[in-house]
Amino acid sequence: MADYRKMWEDLGMDVKTHDLLCEALPGAVIEVYFSQENRPVGMDYFNAVVAEIHGLRPAELAEHKKKGGKVVGTFCIHVPDEVPIAAGAIATGLCSGSQFWVPGGEKKLPAATCPLIKASLGARFDRTCPFFRLADIFVGETTCDGKKKAWEILAEDAPMYIMDIPQMKRKKDYDHWKDEIFGYIRRMEELTGSTVTPEKLHEAIVLLNNKRKALQRLAEFRKLENIPISGKDVLLITQIAFYDDPARLTSKINALCDELDERTRQGVSVFRKGAKRILLTGTPLSIPNWKLHHIVESLGGAVVCEEMCTGIRYYEECVDESGKTLDEMVTALTERYMGAIHCACFTPNHERIDDIKRLVREYKADGVIDVNLKFCGIYDTEGYFVERELKNAGIPVLGIETDYTDQDAEQLKTRIGAFLEMLGN
Ligand code: BJ8
Fold first, then answer.
1. pLDDT value at position 11?
2. What pLDDT digit, counting tens, does each position of 312-358 carry?
3. Looking at the predicted structure, is the pLDDT value of residue 23 above 80?
4. Which pLDDT value is given to residue 25?
5. Contact, 365 vs 305, CB < 8 A?
6. Which of 26, 96, 185, 311 is the most exposed place for a label (fewest CB within 10 A)?
């Protein structure tokens, strides 16, 4: 494993944390979570990327900065990565999924804040995540109250740009989001000194659509009776897609899919026959949050789909590539980044429930687990409709609330185990 201590020092970070991660990550991550038998060989790349998450990709970002390039950190899938890419910057997802950063966040935020927000602030203020040190600017959005206020605190320590996402999806809301995307283009041009031309924006749209298409291809394998890859592996790949180089990642996913094609021809499944198929819906599962997939699949179930931002919402819809002018392209981005994402921050949000029902059919799910991160009020409240509508449609559903600690692992095992048993696992 490469030594990234020098880079950590240069970034003003705690080298002891670096050593701790070096020791803990490969052991804890690969051996505990990803040591299933019969894993596709194509997962080796993703293992390496996650095992060296504290250095491998950050070193590439540092290199880009040395050459005068900029790095843009984002927290939400409503924010179009095409814009910084078209301006010559690197866009990287920053949502944090580990308890490791939460106590740092609690120094600044009320304890009754969702762990995703606390971990994000903790990672920045405690100087324990290189991505949070390498970003030249953070792009926040006004999706939920916790985030809105957290951005004000983060702005005391780092340059922030805030995008105002509407709460409804009326014509004037689309117009507003389009204006916001134009504002984002101007801010990125100012940051990088490069103009976002129609040619560059088109290139960025195609680049990211290719990533989406590769992820869509991967998801198709989960619809099969014999599923050649675990849900945990697909989740890991999706999480890595938020920060890895998009062109390289696309080729690695496609290479893995070629291997999965061959497995499919041979009828290989990583699950035992009759494993109950579970769809997860709810709040995002940011890296390295694999808790629920690990529990479901260790108990003999198969996670076949995530109706989440770290799942189908991230890649199911492509951006229309037919636009010729900047205005047409920004309209296409508006449609994709507002119209096609059914986050609980919108009211009403019945499209999300329609999506879940459709995905249950497409992925032949036997049951749904509605996951809520503790203190996320909007998803928790929307759970009322989600669970009622699924029950009315005859779809078994289990609602759970969790955080990043392992304190509830035993309780979750019992509840999820009982749910799988009820489904006939
Ligand atoms: S589009 S889900 S990535 S906002 S879990 S921070 S909502 S209190 S993450 Fe999200 Fe964009 Fe929506 Fe997706 Fe707030 Fe809830 Fe925490 Fe959340």
1. 94
2. 999 999 999 999 999 999 999 999 999 999 999 999 999 999 999 99
3. no
4. 66
5. yes
6. 26
Q: What single DSSP character describes residue 109?
A: S
Q: Are 268 and 80 in contact (CB under 8 A)?
A: no
Which atom of ligand 1 is the closest one to the Cα of 143? 4
Could you tell me the distance, in angstroms and rounded to a whole number, from the CA of residue 84 to the centre of ligand 1?
A: 21
Radius of gyration of the chain (CA): 21
Dig out the tokens for 276 from the structure: 């109950």
**What's the mean pLDDT in 208-226?**
98
> How far does the centroid of ligand 1 lie from the alpha carbon of residue 49, in Å?
25
- pTM reported for the whole predicted model: 0.97
Residue with CA nearest ligand 1 atom 10: 76
- Distance between CA atoms of residues 387 and 313, nearest Å: 19
147 Cα to the center of ligand 1, angstroms = 8
Give one DSSP letter per residue of 153-171, joined into a string.
HHTTTS-EEEE---SS-SH
Report the Cα 272 to chain-centroid distance in Å: 28
Question: Which residue has a Cα nearest atom 15 of ligand 1?
Answer: 376
